[in-house]
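Q: Protein A?
A:
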Amino acid sequence: MASQGESKTSFSKWKYVHYFTLVEHKDKNLLVKCKLCLSGSKVLSTAINSNSNLSKHLQKRHASTKLEANPVSVDTLEVSQAPPAKQQRLDFNRTVSQGQINKAIARYVVENMQPVSTVESPAFRQLVSMITCSGGTQQMGRKTFSNYLDKEYSKMESELKTTFEGLDYIATTADIWSVHNISFLGMTAHWINTATLQRQKAALACKRIKGRHTYDVIAAEIDHIHLLYGLSTKVTATVTDNGSNFVKAFQMYQPESLSDDDDDGENEEVTFTNVADVLDTSTEEGIVLPPHLRCASHTLNLISCSDVDKWLLSNPGTKGIYRSATAKCTALWSKVSRSTLASKLVGDLVSKKLLVPCSTRWNSFYDAVARIVEIPMTDLSTISNRLELKCIGEREFQFLREYCAIMKPLTVALDILQGEEWHPPAHNRSFDVEATGDKRRPDYCNWPT
C-alpha cells in the first residue's frame, strides 16, 4: 500500500488531496479512495499530471459538501520523497560500443516507424556523434543501415524459429487492415513458456496484401506463414474477427475428421464427391488451416453496436427518440470535425474537444456520446444555437444518459479484453471509463530491449 507522500505528483500538491486516500501508484495513473463516500470502498483512477477525474467526482457526488482547501503548502513537502525526474538526462560521457549504438538507432527507427533516411539527417548524425564510443563513432548511411536491418531481421526470425521448435502448442491471431488504400495482413503468436509458465507473444508477419481479400487468398497467406515458422502441426487455434472472408477461409480449409461410427465399417453409406471440388486447384495446394476462434472483443463490439442499434430501431418506444438524438449528435460531430471555428467555439465554452465516432475504433460511438452528456444542457443549447443546429431536447439528453449507463459495462469489458496486460480488478472497484487508456494499438515489434 503506497503512502500519500510517496510521489510528488499533481495529486500530492492538490488543494483537495485531504479528501482522498492514495491506494496505489500504477505507471501513469493513481488509484485513490474517496473519504467522503459512505461506502468507503469506491476506487477512482486519475492521471499523475491531472486531477480532473477527482474534481468531477467531488462536483457530482458531493456537490452539497462545502469543500475546504488543504492548508498544507507545496513547499512543506519533503524533497527527498520526490520521484525520479520524468525526463531522463542524457549522459554523453558514458562509453558504449558501436554495436550498442547501431542497435539503439535501429530500435528507434523501427519502433517509431521513422524513414530509413533518418540516419542521414544532419541533426540526427550530429546527435549520434556526441555519444562517446570506444574507437570512435562510425555513422551508417541509408544503404548500410538497410542492410543492417535485414541482417537483424533474419537473426530475429531465426531465433524465433528456434524458440518454436521447443514448443508443442501455440496459438496465432490474424487480422487485415488498410492504411492509405494499402492492405496489410498481421499475424501474432502466443504461447506459454514451459520454464516460467508465463504467457509470451511475438509478431509473425506484417505483410502487404494485394488484390481482393477473398477467402482463398487469406487462407493461402495464413498457411504460408504457419509453414514458414514450422507451426502447421502445433497451432491449436487461430483467432480472427467475425469477417465473412475469414470465417469462410477456415470453413473451406478445415481438415476432414472421421467419426467414431465409421471405425467398425458397418452401416456405411455411399458418399458422393463433387468432381469440381476434386479438380479444384486450391485443394491440390494442400492448404490446411487450424481450428478457428472468433475474437471475443469483436463479438462484443458487434453486440454493442449492430445488435443494440437494430433493437433500438425495431422497438417503437425507442425508435423515434433514438433517431432524433443520434441525428442531432451526428450533426454536431460533423460540424465540429469540418469547421475549425466550430471546434474552437466548443473548446472555449466547455474546455473540451468533442470526440467524433470512428467506424474502425471500437467504443468510439459510446465515448463520443459520453463526452456530450458530460456537457451541461445550457452549454449544449448555447453551442447548438451558435452553430445554427437543432438543440438536443431534455428528453433526448436523458435518453443519451441512460444509453451510456447501460452500455458502460460492455465498454469496460472491451477495454479489459483489448488490454496488453490484464490484472483482476480489486474488490468493489469502480471503473472510470475516462481513465481507461486506449491500448488497442497492435504491437508488431519484437525488437529486443
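Q: Protein B?
A:
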Amino acid sequence: MIMWIMGILLIASFACFVIYAMRGGNLTVGFFILTIVWTLIYFLGVPFGVGEPFDVIEETFAQPALTYGPTIIQIICGAWFGRVLVDTGIAASISYRTAKVGEKSPLLATIAVALVTCLIFTSAYGVGSAIAIGVILFPILGRLGVPKRVSVPVFTLSIGAAMWINNVMFVQFAAFYQGYESPDGQVIEWGNHYLSFGIPAMIVQMTAVIIFILLNAKAIKNGTPYEVGDPADRPTDIPDVPVWTYVLPVVPVALSILFQWDSVPALFLASIIAFLGTGHMKTYKGFVNILNSTAKTAIGDIGSLIIMLLVLRFFQQTAVTVMADFGPALTSIVPNNEFILALAVCILAPLALFRGPLELYGAGSAVIGILMGMGIFNAWFLFAMLVVPSMTCISACVTQSWNMWAVNYNELEPKTFLKNGVPVYWLCTFPIMGLAGLLLF
C-alpha cells in the first residue's frame, strides 16, 4: 500500500514539475524543490521498510557538488575560449569575410553564413557569443533580402549543429549521467568514441540546414532588402586578424581527435594562440587586460548555468536513490527493446519543446533519473535517448536563450520561427538516432 502511495506522490510531483518547466518556470528553483519533495516522499516509506535511510546532506548535496568540479572547469574553459574568439575579433572577421564572399549571391551567402556559424560555435558557447555574431550576420542577411523566416532558423539550426562537437555542451549533458552504473561498465566521457558519432551528427544537421536553404531558394533570391537591429550596436570595421586564425575554432576538437588531449589543455592552448595571433600579447599590460576581461565576461555568461547544474546534480542523486526501489516495477512497464524505445523517442521528439519530458534541461531530467534508477540500460543508449531530442531541440525551441534573442532581435513571430525550424530538427532526429545506434551503443 505504501508503495502505491509513494508512487502516486512521485508521479504527481513529477507532473507538476513538467507543467512548471513547460510554462517557463525557473529550472534552478524547480529542481531544488523537486529534490526536497522526492526526498521527503522517500523517507515516508522508510519506516515501512521501503528503502533505506541515507545521509541527505552528504549523499544528496555534498558529494554530488564536490564530484562535479571537473565538469565545471571544462564548462568555464569552453566558455572562456568562446569569449576569446569574440573579443579578439576572430569570430567577427570570419563572419564579415564570409558574407562578403557571397554578397553577390544571396543564396550562396546564406549557405556560407550557415557554415561559418557552425564553424565558430564548434568551440564558442553561450548567448553572449551568439549575440556578438548575430548582430553582424543578421543585418548582412537583411540587406541581401533573405527572409527572416529563413535567416533566423538557419542561424539557430547552425549553432545547434555545432553543439554536437562542442565540448561545453557535451560535458553539460554528460553530467546527467555522472555516477550511473551501466550494466556493461561503460561510462559517458569525451573522446574519440563520442566524436565518432558527434561529427557525423553535426554533418547530418548541417546537411538538413543547407537543404532547408535550397528549398527556400526562390524566396531568398526574390527577397526585399530590409534593416535589422540598431545600426549603432553593430561593429563598423572588419577586425584585422590574420587569416590563419580562422582555423582556431576547430583546434580544440582536432587536438582531442589527433592526440587524445583533454579538453582543458586543448582550450587553453587554443586561447593562447588566439591572443598571440591577434597581437594581444605584444605588451604585458594589454595581455593581462584582455585575459581578465574575457575571463570575467565568460564566467558571468555561465554563472547562473553552473548554479542550475549543481542543483540538477542534487536532484539526480535523489532521483537515482528513490527510483532504485521502484526499478523492478518499472522494468515490467517500460519496454526494454532498444529499437522500440529509440523509435518512440524520434516520433515523440517535439515533446522536447518548451522544456518538456524529452528535454534534459527541463522535465527530461526527471525522466532520465527514472530510467537510470531502473539500472538495466547501457549508458550510451540512455545518453542517446534523451540527448538526441534535447540537442536537436536546442536548434528550434524559443525557450533556448540565443534562439529567443534571435527571434526578438529580428522581430519575428515565435510561431513563424517554430513553423520553419521544428520540422527541420524533428526530421534530423531520425538519422541522428540511427547514427547513435550504429556508433555509440
